[in-house]
UniProtKB/TrEMBL annotation:
Membrane-spanning parts: none
GO molecular function term, any single one: L-iditol 2-dehydrogenase (NAD+) activity
Role according to the record: Xylitol dehydrogenase which catalyzes the conversion of xylitol to D-xylulose. Xylose is a major component of hemicelluloses such as xylan. Most fungi utilize D-xylose via three enzymatic reactions, xylose reductase (XR), xylitol dehydrogenase (XDH), and xylulokinase, to form xylulose 5-phosphate, which enters pentose phosphate pathway.
Cofactor: Zn(2+)
Name the UniProt record assigns to this protein: D-xylulose reductase
Keywords: Metal-binding, NAD, Oxidoreductase, Zinc
Broadest EC class assigned to this enzyme: oxidoreductase
Amino acid sequence: MIPESLDGNNNPSFVLRSINDLAFEDRPKPVLQSPHDVLLEIGPFVVKEPMVLGHEASGTVIEIGKKVTSLKKGDRVAMEPGVSCRRCSACKRGTYNLCKEMAFAATPPYDGTLARFYALPEDLCYKLPEHVSLQEGAMLEPLSVAVHMVRQAKVRHGDSVVIFGAGPIGLLCCAVARAYGPWKVIAVDIQKERLAFAREFAASATFEYSGGTAEESAARLIEDNGLGEGADVAIDASGAASSIRTAIHVLRMGGSFVQGGMPHADVPFPMVEACTKELTVRGSFRYGPKDYDTALGMVATGAVDVKRLITKTVAFEEAEKAFYEVKEGKVIKLLIAGPSQGT
């Protein structure tokens, strides 16, 4: 139950107790663990996956550690929800997203951000300009995922880019890629409604996958979009085996492929095609240095309008209903207001 009135210590939280067992609990208010930490009162959350309890969020600073210098009480911030160890070889190389000791929100055993309060180091809090809303701030997490994927692909001006999957991450990849000045950005999906939105949002062309072999689908995609010898870049944001295989076949000789979508299991991969084309193949996992900064810059300058992906905002008390709406595919992005906020 959520208290009818909230005092300074109530911390209502939305908790996954077990499979399909969701409940509200009043958890202890976090205590700052480091003089570099800040305590945040959470604003909107983004619901992306049915089983993920809060890792896309923004909030307002209500308390700061003694050594915090870049933030003050009342600052509104976007939250990067993973704290790396800062000591391992991955962290020292500047690839902290690959840290094996990463404490990532809503990844067991670490609590997520679906609560009233959340403590985080100051360098993982990105101050929002006055004209950027908390709702937009909550969208910086998925946008940063897209920024990292497009950076892994090394998209350049004049490239042809094919993005498989027109869900939230795929749509944001379209928008980020377009900001780099490519010749074409083509969104691929199996749902007409998603493709229609992709065309309105950021894609310059779309392709509806309708079955057949990967080679056949790739050939149609190339022909329909005038890609000549093939696309320069293919990014998979779906995790679907058919998309992954088609992506390899749609690329030109020497093209680049990035896998960002997470498959449910190992998938067959056209390795001979990848080898004989001498493709550059990269994975993409979460985000790394400067990805959040870039995402914030894109939102602040209007290069990417993340508000268009927000289907609606619901009250914190309706969090369980919101998860089911996402599971049923009724929304693109759904925000949950913080416990002390209205909708």
